[in-house]
Amino acid sequence: MMGGHALEPSLPKTLKGASVVNVQKTSADDLLVELSSGIEVAMLEPDFEEIKKCDGRRVIVTGPAPDGSEYDFFTRVFCPKFGLDEDSVCGSAHCALVPYWSKRLNRQTFTAFMASPRTGVLYVELGEKSQRVRIRGEAVTVMLGTLLV
After folding, report:
1. Residue 129, pLDDT score
2. Rounded to two decimals, what is the model's pTM?
3. Can you give the residue range of the structural domain that contains 17?
4. Could you tell me if residue 142 is inside a domain?
């Protein structure tokens, strides 16, 4: 595995034989798994019971977008340990994904495609000096309220 180590010997079973290129743990205790292609990410049918057994909080699966695509990489985020098999559009996962893809592609700005059944597009950027990730995209307001602390 390129740059990764054998953190998860069960990942091929968990991800039903997907072509794993790299595995690493994020600072947030997630597993970041790169597959050989974004199409493979989109077509993935993971075993959620096996994912619950994986080390880490959730499993972030990513892969390069197909040539000619308007996107740079595809992603899906699986978190059955939290009672949610798949996060439809996960901004927080991109705090690990953007630095990862920045090193892989030697760039700071990306268009990311969340390949969940609902799908979503995120416009993300890594601040060169600050090393902070900026995330933009469309959102839907589902609740308004006031929190008193």
Report:
1. 83
2. 0.83
3. 11-136
4. no
